[in-house]
Amino acid sequence: MRDIAIVTTQETGNIARTLVGRAARSVRERTNLVAATNQPSDYVLNCMRLATNSVQVEGYSGNRFHEGAEAYDAVERFCIKSAAELFGSKYASVQAWRCTNGLLGVTRALAKPGDRVLGLECASGGYYATSTKAHLIGKLYDVATYTVSESDCRLDYDLIRERALHERPKIIFAGDTSHSRDWNWPAMRSIADEAGAYLVADISQTAGLIASEVLSSPVQFADVTLFATYKTFRGPHGCIVLANTGEIWKAIQSRLYPELQGSVVASTLAGLAATLEEAGTPEYAEYQRHVVDVSRRLAEGVAAQGVEIVTGGTDNHGFIAVMPDDGNSSAADACQMLSRQGILTNKTPIPFDRRSLFASSGVRIGASYIANLEVSDDEIDSIAGRIGRTIRSLH
Ligand SMILES: Cc1ncc(COP(=O)(O)O)c(C=O)c1O
């Protein structure tokens, strides 16, 4: 049998191709400083393209429901083994479609509906799914929050301990969406032990930095560690869940499939395998170190224009520049203005923000994407200068 094209391009109006091409160019042709984004390598993208779409990969490796998926068993097993080796965990799962699904599956595995869970508040840099009622976790569970310190916007472990002992949650979520400092994982472990809680670390933002030992790892301290694989990790849009006991791992697996999801996306599995392979190389670690260097240089350049940076700087791939307090303009205005200049960022609340979520006082700036490109120090300084001047000009 020969390969056939199902629909040739001549039979369509090429509308999708035009729209998608425009969408891709709108990012590629601008300076992408959105901290949540990245660009997988050609190796990862090529492996994803190689994976066929015409396969139903449902169930777990060695226990599939459809014929034709057995070759993907080897891909999934490779991912599991590589992820566990890379991060030093006993167990790994690559079934969750997205980290937000992973978080729900993990919460279902460790707590009963109605149980209290404790997460970092959004304005303090926490992820909405583990700290608000907007996500299903917040609808099924009783979500309480902790904050950073009001004095310096850093994590204050005495304060977190106080909150945990007061709330007595079943799960404490650690990890963040937009905190630019490293976490003290042994401190979080001891707080969880004192409160009788499971510790779940969501390292979506920083997984690549942790894999390369640029930041400290929670894996030995948390009951479960999980992350979105497309940010600093530089992979496809998937999720990796790591656990240290077979009991917890099994409970999570059954919550992910069959309770929460159906089949696995073959191209995502392929992309994860390729990213995990890359993550063991010296070039990958070199890239991760470069990400932090670029992030720090950008933060210094923005601060040099007289703009405040939350916590005064950064240890990781991103940071938050603060809008002047004496003006009417919000971070939303600044981000739109920067976007018109060809610089992509995102608005975000700052700790104890006086502005609404949609206006916000923080401009989040990240280096994961541009650290892949050949950008000189002078260019970085020039970008930082433009950002700083734009923020200062908005009163
Ligand atoms: C801490 C954290 N967890 C999860 C996610 C989202 O992951 P996904 O898009 O895979 O659901 C984000 C995205 O920004 C995040 O910052």
Let me know the CATH homologous superfamily of the largest domain: Type I PLP-dependent aspartate aminotransferase-like (Major domain)
Helical content (DSSP H or I, runs of 4+): 40-55%
The separation of the N and C termini measures 67 Å
Please give the count of helices. Answer: 13
Main sheet overview: 7 strands, mixed
Quickly count the domains. Answer: 2
Explained architecture:
The protein is of the alpha/beta class. It folds into two domains: 49-279, Aspartate Aminotransferase, domain 2 (3-Layer(aba) Sandwich), CATH 3.40.640; 290-393, Aspartate Aminotransferase, domain 1 (Alpha-Beta Complex). The chain is built from 13 helices and 14 strands. It has helices at residues 15-28, 42-50, 70-87, 99-110, 136-140, 157-167, 185-195, 207-211, 246-260, 266-279, 282-303, 331-340, 377-393; strands at residues 31-32, 59-60, 63-64, 91-93, 116-120, 142-146, 171-174, 198-202, 224-228, 239-243, 318-322, 343-344, 346-348, 362-366. The strands form four sheets. The chain has a seven-stranded mixed beta sheet with strand order 4-10-9-8-7-5-6, sandwiched between helices. Helix 8 links the parallel strand 8 (198-202) and strand 9. It is globular. It starts with 14 loop residues before the first helix and ends with a helix. It binds pyridoxal-5'-phosphate. The site of pyridoxal-5'-phosphate has 12 residues, from helix 4.
